[in-house]
Amino acid sequence: MTTTLHPADAQTGFQRRYDVQDLSAIDVAILDTFPHVREDDQSPYPGQPIEIVISTDEFSPVCPWSGLPDFGRLEIRYVAAEKCVELKSLKYYLTSYRFVGIYHEHATRRVLADLVRLLEPVRMTITCDYGVRGGINTVVKAEYTRAD
Fold first, then answer.
1. Highest mean pLDDT among 8-22, 36-50, 55-69, 114-128
2. Is 128 a catalytic residue?
3. Cys-Cys with 122: which of 16, 25, 52, 79 at CB 3.0–4.6 Å?
């Protein structure tokens, strides 16, 4: 027995595709920084450089093929050299991915590239654990270490 889809059925699910934005929608210009060390703090900071870890469960670019959202837990881990990322600006930046059609691997590498350009850190790791889809879980990790 064969099933034939009527034209109206094709628009209700099997052939539906949501429009997606291209990479130009990623708002890199919104990112802001602040100094790693306060200029008005005269006391030295003892110990090793600090590692900063920022995470969110709200990272959701979309599948470039279907336009459906891909929800992921994004973790940014870095050792600052001179600058730290300002969190409100980071939230706006990550939210700008909301309708961008981009594969998991490309999104993770793009976040790393944008933040490395912005912060020039000693080292940085971006890890995104995307939700299970079709029984498959994807975790993508991209790393950067400054060459000194």
1. 114-128
2. no
3. 79
What backbone phi and psi angles, to 5 degrees, belong to 113? -60, -45
Cβ within 8 Å of residue 135, ≥6 positions away: none
Handedness of CA 72, 78, 82, 86 (dihedral sign): positive
Q: How far is CA 136 from CA 62, 69, 113, 139, in A?
A: 17, 15, 26, 10
63 is catalytic: yes
pLDDT averaged over the chain? 89
DSSP codes of every residue in 52-71: EEEEEEEE--B-TTT--B--
The reply to whether 104 sits in an annotated binding site is yes
**CA 82 from chain center: how many Å?**
22
Active-site residue, selected from the candidate residues 32, 70, 114, 148: 70
pTM: 0.85
What CATH number has the domain spanning 51-148? Answer: 3.30.1130.10
Averaged pLDDT for residues 130-135: 82
Q: Establish whether 86 is an annotated binding residue.
A: yes
